[in-house]
UniProtKB/TrEMBL annotation:
GO MF term (any one): pyridoxal phosphate binding
Enzyme kind, highest EC tier: transferase
Protein name as annotated: Alpha-1,4 glucan phosphorylase
Source species: Tuber melanosporum (strain Mel28) (Perigord black truffle)
Task of the protein: Allosteric enzyme that catalyzes the rate-limiting step in glycogen catabolism, the phosphorolytic cleavage of glycogen to produce glucose-1-phosphate, and plays a central role in maintaining cellular and organismal glucose homeostasis.
Cofactor(s) required, per the database record: pyridoxal 5'-phosphate
Amino acid sequence: SIPQPLREIWRKLSASEFTGKEQFQKEVVRHVETTLARSIYNCDDNAAYSGTALAIRDNLVIKWNKTQQHQTLQDQKRVYYLSLEFLMGRTLDNAMLNTGLKDTAREGVSGLGFRIEDIIDQEHDAALGNGGLGRLAACFLDSLATLNYPAWGYGLRYRYGIFKQEIINGFQAEVPDYWLDFNPWEFPRHDVAIDVMFYGTVNPGPRDDHGNIKKVWEGGEIVQAIAYDVPIPGYGTDCTNNLRLWSSKPSGGEFDFGKFNSGDYEGSIRDQQRAETISAVLYPNDNIDAGKELRLKQQYFWVAASLHDIVRRFKKSHRPWKEFPEQVAIQLNDTHPTLAIVELQRIFIDIENLAWDEAWSLVTRTFGYTNHTVLPEALEKWSVPLVQNLLPRHLQIIYDINLFFLQSVERKFPKDRDLLRRVSVVEEGTPQVLRMAYLAIIGSHKVNGVAELHSDLIKATIFKDFVDIFGQDKFTNVTNGITPRRWLHQANPKLSDLIASKVGGYDFLQDLTKLSVLEKYIDDKTFKKEWMEIKLAAKVKLAKYIKDTTQIAVNPHSLFDIQVKRIHEYKRQQMNIFGVIYRYLRLKEMTPEERKKQVPRTSIFGGKAAPGYWMAKTIIRLITAVGEVVNQDEETNCLLKVIFIEDYNVSKAEVIVPASDISEHISTAGTEASGTSNMKFVLNGGLIIGTCDGANIEITREIGEENIFLLGNLAEHVEDLRHQHRFGKDVVMDLKLREVCDAIEAGRFGPEQTYSGLMSALTTGCDYYLVSDDFSSYIATQDLVDEAYKDQDGWATKSITSVARMGFFSADRAINEYADEIWNIEPSKIEPRS
Ligand code: GPU
């Protein structure tokens, strides 16, 4: 509808991307001088970062606009990835690499008197996530854009991301992470403002086209959702997708002028803060359901705004409703967005006047649900009275969904009343609660787990009845993956370059199976030497970081043994630190002669504990206390050091991951759904010590049993072992573990009361995570690690062979599986502008 001459003028004036060093420098200086109002005289590293980011951003935005126009014009099916967490980390380096501008930028800033590394280091992490689940969402966005899929992410724009961890006197303290001071990567869309209602009542309204009395939800409190858009560049493609994050504010302006004019200034500000609280803070829990009302508000706020946006976009195409599932796929990242199912059904029946059955058929064909855990304490349950109060109309719809579902179960399995009780969305009790995973299954056409073992386990345990009801085909597996762009090319450029020199360039970054060519070089002495030198350089870099931040010197030639992830009893950092104590006790007993034969080791830990998770915090305290003792012990400290890296996050992971010799993935079998850092470490040439759990099993299958150190009991034995702990008589604790407990209880690592919770979990607490059952296997396997490490050539062979066989674990492979088997979407290449 825009007249042709006007189009011509706009086309002529249209912004174009800079190319080459000089143009880049010009853009940086222009941004420093005009956007930032600074000059050569006060341009520090931080201002240089801002200028560089803004210059790179300009090119990104041009690609982004082009992509969005292209996708709108094509009007193909899109996928919407709904996740309460996107753990993006830093953007600048990734944006430069993905758009091919890194070399230009390096030379450019150098010519302006800066080092690109220092500039990259200025950026604050975007830490809108807790751990694996949030980072997976970020890796998936990278793959979706790289593979040219039309895709949007939807999330919340938290003002405070995951807290910053400080270690004070050996204990974790939490400090707020205000990260929005300068964020060039987001674009506020004040014109995209959506009203979201809470509370209110449901009243009878007029009759609808089908003759039924309509239900009208009204009189509630209204909060506005404002869109903030973040460009997501693909690697080696112009495709730049959108991540839309919602921020909350009071509806109808900054504050209530009525209240203000009547003298209630404070009241008007309070209302404003109340609205803004919704998107204020990320809940810092990983694998645990806390059931707080504000969290439910966050979930509905985000889901309602996203669904409104998606439906509005669909309506612009003037297609009939029956085409909705042919245009829209929505993936639920865990049960956090399950209300989206209810909200879409509400939009269809209450607002768009579709009949229930037609609406429900569209809804179920639209959604897919990914489960990320079998841990019972992590399965979301919302109290019925809470939902009744906050979302009264949604509760009615949930009851109807449940009723129709149970009626269908009754038809299929007549009179099995216990089955009806077991699969009902409403769990009886005081109060009644809604089982969100069941609602997610009923409202989706596919349900997937995130690794083979995990997907088998959910079918055999928590969702078994639903497999009987819906059949096998509804349940599937998509093993997680990681983006090789960030986790190899960006984090470990030297290794990426060496690999590229052998496998014929950087194509492996878009087809990770090309790594297999590396196996040809297993006997190439110079290649092996270069390989091990790169590993050593990464260890030196981490050692320097440790020295700079903790003042502790670690030997880069020692075996670096790393466990970095959220602190959780099921991940068993306690078993690791008990193993360290056991090692220390042995070293203390040895003669100087014996000590000479030992392999020096540096045990490195990192990870946050949920602020209310007392046991996890005790584990951190034990690790830091063991460090205080061991690192000072002149007799042994050339053979053993213990480091706790404060405030583990994505940008630190990029330094830590390339530096491991061994990393630990030692969860109780059957508890870690997948794990993704296991993949990152192996892709960087580190070996693994781990249990037969999550993706460790598939990693073993790909790289070969000879290249991984497996330990411990199998998932199929866990139930029996737990039973044994609870009801078996005279279970004697493993002697090695007894020795460790004795040392702790003797106060060798500070007052033993500090650890009483940890100790009693092992004994009177029935050792739910089976540390005592796996401990001797763990110690024996660590001995095998030491032996293997003495043979550096053999170690290099394992390392290279493993990397060569890691192609399967690219997030690109995972995304292609989702696209083909769940979303039914096609890639669409953005043509370079003529
Ligand atoms: N995961 Br549930 C989280 O990081 N947070 C959660 O709240 C839940 C799961 C993780 C799993 O623990 C991990 O095994 C998996 O690799 C990851 O999600 C991505 O699927």
